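Reply to dn_fold:

You asked what the input looked like. This is it:
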Amino acid sequence: MMSGMSLLATWTRGEHAADAVTHPTYTKGSGTGVIVIHEIPGMTPAVIGFAEEVVARGHTVVMPQLFGGPEVGMGPRAVVKTVAQVCVSKEFTKLVAGETSPVANWLRSLARSLHAAAGGPGVGAVGMCFTGGFALAMMVDPAVVAPVVAQPSLPFAVGKRRGADLGLSPADLDVVKRRAAAGCPVLGLRYAADKATGTRFDTLGRELGDAFIAVEFAGKGHSTLTEHRQQEGVDRVLDFFDERLA
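and this is what came back:
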């Protein structure tokens, strides 16, 4: 990063309120909308860099800041601090299977707002790691037509049941399955040996059938689009947004 030059200097800072909850947002670009949800520990330079690539492909990108700080580095101290923050937050369901995190309602509201502003057939959404499954939860709202699930890690994969769970209530899972069957595909990315994702890709394949597009990479990496970036994965996501939001 250039000295004194913020990576977010060209982004417009705002906020979005829904269900008595307000989070900061950063917006940039023009064209159809895409929501990029950061991973732990927050809006890292790598997350911002990925979002810039989505902007460059002709999309209006909104990055909500759900926890951590803007331009936070991926150091162990920042990770520990953010984990402590999210573990006490009631917005995120960390260990319970068969439940949708409350923050999903806020994110769905953000998606509707972005769709109204940007137009097109709907919006895209990509969640990563801790937020990976949120794009799937957002798909319950018809405004979301291009959900991307990158290394989904909630609920924490402690035990077989949690490791297979998608972080959705039964009712939300039914809606996701109906939308998938009606022609809304879900793109998923992960490293094959990433234990944080449990067996969720097996669950997604079983529940969504051919509507689930799995992109898996060899090895024990984790962050497919950022810290352990795979160019093929980034390209697949950008192409997916182009196809679904054209």
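The chain has one domain: 13-245.
Hope that clears it up.
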